[in-house]
Amino acid sequence: RLASGKIVAATDQGLVVFAEGRAETVFGETEGAPDNLVLSVAVDEQDRVWAGTHRGGVFRWSPGAPLRTLPGAATGAVARIAVAHGRVWAGTRDRGLLVLDTALASGPLRPHATERPPAVRDLMVGAGHVWWCDGTATLHRADPHVLVAPELDGLDMRAISALCFDARQRAWFALPQGVYARDAGEHVLTRVLQVPHSTPVTAMAVDADGTLWVATFGDGVHAVRADGRVERHGMTADLCNPNVLAVRVLGRQVWCATLDGLCVRDQATGRWRPVPMPGPGFVYDVLPQADDGAIAATDGNGLLRVDAAGRAQAVDSLGPRTFYTLLRTADGTVWAAGPGTGLCRMADGGLECSGGELPPFNEGTVLAMAAQQGRVLVFGTTGTWAHDPATGQWHDLTAGLRAAGMQAALHAVATLDDGSVRLGCDRGLLHLRPSPTRYRTHLRTVITGLRTAGRPLPVREEVATPHDRNDLAVQFAAPYFDAPGEVRYVYRLEGHDPAPRTTRDREVHYTGLPPGRYTFRVHALLGETVGPPPATAATLVVHVRAPWWERPGGMALIAGLAVAAVVLVVRARERRLRQRERVEQERVRAQLETLRSQVDPHFLFNSLNTLTALIETDADRAVEHVDQLSGFFRSILQVRDKELVPLHEELDLLAGYFDLERARFGAAIALDVQVPSDAMDRWIVPLTTQMLVENALKHNAAGPQAPLTVRITVEGEELVVRNRRSPRVGAPRSTAFGLDSIRRRYAALDPRPVQVVQDDATFMVRVPLVRQWP
Questions:
Q1: Which residues, other chains included, contact 535 with Cβ-Cβ below 8 Å and sequence gap of 6+?
Q2: How far apart are alpha carbons 216 and 221 in whole angstroms?
Q3: Which is more confident, 219 or 591?
Q4: Strands 472-477, 97-101: parallel, antiparallel or unpaired by DSSP?
């Protein structure tokens, strides 16, 4: 769309301009277009229309101006065309990507340097770069501020040995075919000088009169005057040596660096004057000074300062000894570089050098230096680096410029008035325009993903995760298309990491984070920048929640439960103590009652009467009766302090008691014990059966004709004691102490009750048996 609102369209009939819905103008072959089949069209900021055709290359048209075909793109199909960053980008099917400065009125499209020009299928501009595809899986990218032209007007620009520009921005290029000139507004190279192939051009410079000085290796210096006249300055003109490595001018003053020292041209006589040099006098470069002196970069003698009288003195006698190239920046600072020297700045006290450990100095050869955007660019065979004198920082441009392994001749570099740098190298003519992003040290960083325990979380300024999902993975990115592999990330998890860490990965992991509040900060940088995180850093607050029992409410709950547990334990202990006290009281009462009953006068009287009768009739049985009586009382004393006894011990005690009673009653009483052997190891309250049997003998009548039988059996988990009911006449009044004592003692030891079941014929007591007793 044009500024007027008109629409331009690419058609098979040519370039068509539509106004108010109808075709207003058609530009086809009849109207001067190179081809009717227009494949693509674009409009620049100046309302100029650029069109790509099927077989006629690119042509340009603007309202009120004639149609013009670009001479450098007269052939080939242009599939896509775009305008961006002051250039036209044309994607062709056979010549790859072509580019033209739109600031020029007309001119050829120069090939954009690629190792193998692909067939451009599609083309777009975005994210500060030009992108194109060739139908494969590869996506190509071009930095619009970095252009490399392998050829120009049919000349191979990969063989440039020297170049320079004058005040009018007229360019001179030295190629094996000769020296060519091109005016700023023209696009045709004109050869102004032809030199033998055996004497290559090493350097060129233009003085204030417009004379081009061409230095050669073997044929001296040639002066190409503004009117086209050529003068040769060799040995006959008193030039120090015909092997010239550098030529520099300041105003009308001309200096040459040769294999035999320095030569300066006398402005009054036009003759060359040699400058005495210490040592062999091998000079790589020379930089004229405003005081009519110069700075010389030598091989073996370091930097030399030459005054107006021609006296040479070392700038720093202790500094490096060999320098290849010199540079004066806009502030007047002189810089020098050579093999292993680093970048050296001349100061009043000598030389100040830095960066000697970087690849341009310690691994390869320094080729040239240039100034751009306040920085010093160092071009070497192992890469290109930029130095910022204000901060002392270095910036690696190798990947962004694709400069690794690049070869260039010494001094084949120039800086134009617009700040762009031109460099002749083995890849073509490098055009390095000022870029707002090339020398960035920090990149804007964003956090792109977050996972805890392998589960993704939404990315917010603050996130929270439970204590059992405390494994954290953070992903981040800082887009930098010039050289993605050069981006480094500095990150720190505040509250966990003692110091910042550096990585080239775009994801970091933390495992087993303790509960707490953490702040994750990450920023991307280029070069060796250090310091606090910049404003471009990304921040994420992570809160690992403590488990509920470590929170104030949980701790209060736990404390309350602990207090309640202590209270319950204390109360349970008190209940157990009271129960034990009651059991002990019942046991003592039972012992006392048992002893009382055993020592009852009637019992003793009956036992003694039985003993008297036995003594008179059967002395042996009398002795046996005494032994049984003493054994019974001994057994009572042994179990009186126990809460429970095994059932077999209880039945043994009962057997001793029943033997004593049978000596008195004879066949009138009987004891029937039928307890299985597997129940003998169960536990029972001591003297329980003795009390129940004694109770049965005490309250029931017995005789030889109707004997009283007490049966003891086990049913399930209970001991059953039963006898028939035959109440005695004149039986003593029952105190019910025995049964009541048994109930209370069992109530303190076992939740199962003692059951008493009786009817007119039977009296039965069911006593629980305890399986285990500690």
A1: none
A2: 6
A3: 219
A4: unpaired
- Evaluated on CA atoms 655, 660, 663, 665, the torsion sign reads negative
Whether 411 contacts 367, CB under 8 Å: no
Q: What is the largest CA-CA distance in the chain?
A: 178
Residue 673, pLDDT above cutoff 80: yes
What residue type is assigned to position 143 of the chain? D
Torsion sign over Cα 430, 435, 440, 445: negative
Give the pTM: 0.66
How many CB atoms are closer than 10 A to CB 389? 17
DSSP one-letter string for 459-483: --SEEEE-TT---EEEEEE---SS-
φ, ψ dihedrals at 554, nearest 5°: -65, -40
Strands 507-510 and 669-674: unpaired
Task: Say if residues 325 and 297 touch (Cβ distance below 8 Å).
Answer: yes
Sign of CA dihedral 607, 613, 615, 618: negative
The pLDDT value recorded for residue 182 is 86
Which SS3 state, helix, strand or coil, does residue 24 take? strand
Determine the Cα–Cα distance for residues 165 and 204; give it in Å rounded to an integer. Answer: 9
Number of neighbours of residue 566 by Cβ within 10 angstroms: 10
Q: Which residue has the tokens 């020296």?
A: 179
> pLDDT at residue 306 above 90?
yes
Residue 116 has pLDDT above 70, yes or no: no
Tokens of 686: 């001591």
Q: Which helix (H) or strand (E) holds 596?
A: helix 552-598
On whether the CB atoms of residues 400 and 433 are closer than 8 A, the answer is: no
Which of residues 469 and 107 earns the better pLDDT score?
469
C-alpha distances out from residue 556 to 24, 516, 561, 565, Å: 86, 20, 9, 14
Residue range 541-566, pLDDT digits in tens: 999 988 877 778 877 888 888 889 99
Instruction: Compute the CA torsion angle 341, 343, 348, 349 (nearest 10 deg).
Output: -40
∠ CA(38), CA(39), CA(45), 5° rounding?
85
Among 61, 59, 103, which Cα is nearest to 81's?
59
Q: Give the position of tokens 């010093």.
A: 376
Q: Which of 725, 718, 739, 724 is nearest to 675 (CA)?
A: 718
The label of the residue with tokens 């994607």 reads 91
Helix (H, G, I), strand (E, B) or coil at 195: coil
Tokens of 603: 């019992």
Helix segments in 285-388, DSSP class H:
359-362
Reported as a single tens digit per residue, the pLDDT across 700-730 is 888 888 899 999 999 999 999 999 998 887 6
Q: Which residues pair with 420 in a beta bridge?
A: none
d(CA 184, CA 182): 7
Extract the runs of DSSP E, i.e. beta strands, from 389-515. Answer: 393-396, 408-415, 421-425, 428-432, 442-443, 446-452, 455-456, 462-465, 472-477, 488-494, 501-503, 507-510
Question: Nearest Cα to 606, choosing from 664, 676, 542, 662?
Answer: 664
- DSSP labels, 655-713: HHHHHHHHHHHGGGEEEEEE--GGGTTSEE-TTHHHHHHHHHHHHB---SSS-EEEEEE
> Over the stretch 272-285, which tens digit does the pLDDT of each residue have?
888 888 877 789 99
List CB contacts of 62: < 8 A, sequence separation 6 or more. 46, 47, 48, 49
CA atoms within 13 A on the CB side of 541: 5
